[in-house]
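Entry for the shared binder. Reason: the reviewer on the internal report wants the predicted structure included alongside the sequence.
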Amino acid sequence: MRQALLDLDYSDVYHFAAIFNENPHDASLWNAALLAKYENLGSPFQKSDWDALLGHCMAVTDTPCTVFWRELVDLYPDAKVILTLRDTPEQWHRSAIETMMHVFDGVYPRHPTLLQRVFKLFGPPPTEVDRMHELLLKHYMYKDLHTNGVQFYKEHAEEVQRVVPKERLLVMNVKEGWDPLCRFLGVEKPGWEFPRVNDTGSFRRNWGVIEGWMWKGVMVNMGKTLGWAVGAALVAWWLMTYARGLVGMGVAGLTVWWCIRDRL
């Protein structure tokens, strides 16, 4: 949907990807909004706060914007709302599991494997984006999407259609193409096909590239850290061989701790 709106000359259409590619500092603002909404920490966002965060956009899509859809509908009464539906709730659920939950289960596992523990130990330090992901996993649909995703989809669709005035709402399946969207927005239909991007296959391929770069960083960090650890082990061997054993063990232990202290 983001690409379709961009094709219709809606500039700065907000999307989850915008936090990574265009506005990484937005994550701290989203965290403040999430903490206020779900944990009563700080003040709930007012219109001035949303203007500061999203005021440059002509449209907003995707998480985390959808977390606050009711607040945005109320604060911007002239805004139109587009609810996109799949052929079936099960189809949407399967897609969500194979895309976003594939990422979340790998990077933020509830029961990490040994390999995932290695990634966390030697991977990049946590960022505001990581904090945002953790809050979404704790409070939003992702917390139980595996078991309750279909029900969430149904309840969300029903609530949007119940709350949003009919004259402000378009319910559509992207398979319908340009016609319903352009009629609703009152714009001319483009001369090219409706965009179909970010499907499951392309999402998984793009994530595979990102994941590969992340693991390269892990390998580099492991090499740097364990290289020092190997040096410390050689020092320990020399000390235990040519000096008092307990002294050597103590010095070696301190040396290894010094090398990996930032990773613990």
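Summary line for the report: The chain has 13 helices and four strands.
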